Amino acid sequence: MEKILQTSLTPEHVKLGAKMAPFAGFNMPLQYHSVKEEVIAVRESVGVFDVSHMGEFFVSGPEAVKFVDYALTNDFANAAVGKAVYSPLCRENGTVIDDLIAYKLERERVLICVNASNIEKDFTWLKSISGDFNCKLENCSDDYSLLALQGPDSVAIITTLGVKLGDDFDYYSAREVSSPHGNLIVARTGYTGEDGFEIFGGHETIKVIWSELLKEGVSPCGLASRDVLRLEVAYPLYGHEISDDVTPLDAGLKWTVKAEKESFVGKEALSNYKPKFRLVKLSLEKGIPREGYPILNSEEEEIGTITSGTMSVTLGRGIGIGLVEKDKFPKNKEFKIKVRKNAFAAQYHAKAFVTGGHK
User: Fold this and answer.
1) Number of H helices, E strands in the chain
2) Residue 14 φ/ψ, nearest 5 degrees
3) pLDDT for 202-246, tens place per residue?
4) Do 251 and 99 form a contact (C-beta atoms < 8 A)?
5) Could you give the domains of the chain?
6) Which residues have C-beta within 8 Å of that of residue 211, sequence separation ≥ 6?
7) Which of 17, 156, 202, 295 falls between 20 and 30 A from 11, CA-CA?
8) 70 Cβ neighbours under 8 A, 6+ residues apart
9) Percent helix, strand and coil across the chain, each to the nearest 5
10) SS3 348
């Protein structure tokens, strides 16, 4: 039986009475209070998530940026120092290994943050394609804890930690900073659509910061509310909207594939690829779409599948995103979702269900 891992904060979650559950090999907090309370806290004030299960790789050396740019479909080479870039990581055939964020900390130093379930897979892949580059790749996942401080009050709260970020610290910026509690890497990123920060640090440092945030009245939030929040703003999740079976072009991520780049893994395959699927955002007046539920056209013919679904706290209705076969996408944009035995009319959304407040 595989051992369930703990984050440095697991004892704190247990002390707080969090409902715990295994996720990506870790014992993680699902919720502390109601999911509704936690979602509202993030949308209206501020919440904090322990996301220390995520993986951290560092790439250093003269060709660190060149290598990361080659590994990613998005443009990393032209990002300024101190910027973060979201990108899929693809195979030569264009299918998605993972999605990640790469942070250009210095001209020769890059942090890559990957999904917890893909740490070993991603590192093995990156190692296998790094041979031609003058850089060093290190898996430092065991050395870091990570907090996501999210919500409109997050700027005011982070200053109480003695962290000085300056006025030029825009959305998708990242930098190394010192704080009274220890050295940190702070990025203005997150998975909720709200303004906020992801705070990387040593385990003991992050334990102190967690405690300080709770003293400031920040709501601890679990993975259940995090999933509702990311779905409301229609962010994709690896293993759901993106997977080993699809390309970024199938999953609404064409904007992350910079075909004009001279070279990147999967360029040839993606340049010639005709997408099989189209990502759709649907909501229901009645019923909750769940992963695996069939998506139908107005004639009730099956044309796709819900990949993620939940009850939206913000909208008070069921929402779901899914993949529809591209050649079966209905021109009238009329959809139904089969919920058990019933087919309910679904509203098509051209944009995200909720507009987040990130800067």
Assistant:
1) 8, 19
2) -65, -45
3) 999 999 999 999 999 999 999 999 999 999 999 999 999 999 999
4) no
5) 10-52+144-232 (3.30.1360.120), 56-141 (3.30.70.1400), 276-349 (2.40.30.110)
6) 12
7) 156
8) 129, 133, 263, 264, 265
9) 25, 35, 40
10) strand
